[in-house]
């Protein structure tokens, strides 16, 4: 189906692109809800199939010592519930250790495998470049997630000779059209999605991650203010809310094989 997420600065022209499947890779449970839950709610409302891959179990997260023994189970429960609020049921885990994620060839191979299996039009992940304006966006696991996914997308996903065991298992090479980044340095953000109608769903999903929020009221104020500021940067009408992305065309009219 076609889904309109256009903005004036964007390289992504949804009027001519068909978006049927989106695959999101993030480092920890809750990353996707902070970064893109409004856009995801809009996608699923329009009939787009969205899948998540959480690369670590989030086992080093949280604030309450009481939660330590069941933190992995707790965060998985939170992510399942939060995902359901924005229309997502398909969740995968790589089960890497929180704080130890690296773009190793084993991690990259597993990313390639999932992309080839789902064959999305958009892969969304965390940015591999450090954001000096807000260092919290650049947790080492965030950077590693972005680097691993970027390396997987080019050239491995589309190279029939990369990880040949995947092709032998029936997972053929695939040319991904679009790569979307969250947690990007502001200077690189080039696409804004109006999520005004989905702010409440986004905040509801974030609130589910209760183990990660020592001050829910402050969190909500910051998120709302950031969304409105993004809307202003996008040039949307006053008071509109937006999520911001760095969108990269991987395979399109401007690209040719191998370049």
From TrEMBL:
A Pfam cross-reference name: PIG-L
Keyword Zinc among UniProt keywords: yes
Transmembrane segments: none
Keywords: Zinc
Matches recorded under InterPro entries: GlcNAc_PI_deacetylase-related, LmbE-like_dom_sf
GO terms of biological process kind: glycoside metabolic process
Molecular function GO terms recorded: hydrolase activity, acting on carbon-nitrogen (but not peptide) bonds, in linear amides
The name this protein goes by in its record: PIG-L family deacetylase
